[in-house]
Specification:
Blueprint lengths: L4 H26 L1 H6 L3 E8 L10 E4 L2 E11 L4 E8 L8 E9 L2 E9 L12 E2 L4 E2 L4 H14 L2 H15 L3 H20 L1 H20 L1 H20 L1 H25 L3 H17 L1 H21 L84 H5 L63 E3 L5 E3 L24
Length: 490
Amino acid sequence: MNLNRKIKIQLSIFAVVAAISTAIIGLGYMRLPSLLFGVGHYNVAIELPEAANLYPTGNVTYRGTEVGRVTSVHLTDTGVEAELSLISGIAIPSDLDAQVHSQTAVGEQYVALQPRNDTSPPLKNGDVIPRSHTSVPPDINSLLDATNRGLLAIPNDNLKTVVDESYTALGGLGPEFTRFIKGSTTLAIDARKNIDGITALIDGAKPLLDTQTDTGDNVQAWAAHLATITGQLKAKDRAVAGILDNGPAAADQARALFDRLNPTLPTLLANLVSVGQVAVTYQNDLEQLLVLLPVGISDIAGSGVPNQELKTAYRGIYLSFHLNLNLPRPCSTGFLPAQQRRDASFVDAPGRPAGDLYCRIPQDAMFNVRGARNIPCETVPGKRAPTVKMCESDEQFVPLNDGDNWKGDPNATISGQDIPQLPPGSPPRPAAPPPAAQPPPIPAIAAAEYDPATGTYLGPDGQTYTQANLAANAPKEQTWQTMLMPLSVR
């Protein structure tokens, strides 16, 4: 065959291009640069407790993607060490677990890299994954031997019965099992997406379970009480049935009652709130009253029991109808004078005077000791005052005088206070307007106190008078009026 120069040049060029293409394809397919020179790869070692049938050229995966191969597996003094050749372009976190798995039942082991987090620095050439972060699958031979021994321990007849009964119980439930498996898969996927929350839940469950353990005795006591209650309900079954039968009718009647009370019940409950607040404030006094009241009632009831051993006409409680007027004498200090008091025959209802009217003698005076001036302050222990406002303020009780002015004007004050007494913080009382021209006043009825020991009293004119039949040495008159006189005056 005669070839000219042009054809020879073309064949030479084609041969060179074919040789170069074949070399490139061969080197790329067989990965000879990486295998021979390590181009584009870096090496990482993993420590294993045993080889677990892992072999060189086995695959290495990261998140299910192939990222390298096993280059060698060799023995060490403490176990087995495998060398991995990983692709340089993929950043793999250094904080990870290296797990040896079987791709099929007959072998084909590979190494799966499972990262713990994505914040750790990436692996680099020469890193070693410690044995504490590696795992190998169980030995298939040991597993098959254990399964075989378990099957040999089951009698054939019983095993046939189990298989038959299992078929009877589970036969035809394929769609249900399919839905169950799909639901389990979905649940597992959702759980993986919320792994942080599930981990926090598991970590936080320990304190809760510890409290349940610590309160085990209380839970047992509660269960015992619950058993007692249920036993009582069982014993009173008829009564419970009666409640259930009659309950709807009673509920209807209660609803009708609330409907009738609806216009006034809210107002009543709102007022009871104030009553409840007062009751809370006076809780100690109410408790003492509830304690002492039964004792007092029993004493009063006992005093009325007839005394059979007494040799007189008295056979029970003694009643005296003596009035004992002015023993002790009343307190008029701090009240309106007699000239300003209303006549008892008036039937109108004017407003009360602004301020407080009460016995305003010293708190340590010997009479009227239970007056308003000595009321204990509930919210200020140790303080006594006539009003709540004075209790709550820094103001102290100041008497009008020495407290024994029963002759003349009882309100002859030496403290400069108003009568009636205004609450703390009140503006001063306005000055009274000048009196207008009025007709001559009608003589007022005078009232004066007398001394029951001497029968003397001070008249409106300032003179001292004596009523002889009011003195202690007055003659004893045998009339019905004597029962109205004090014993010390008879």
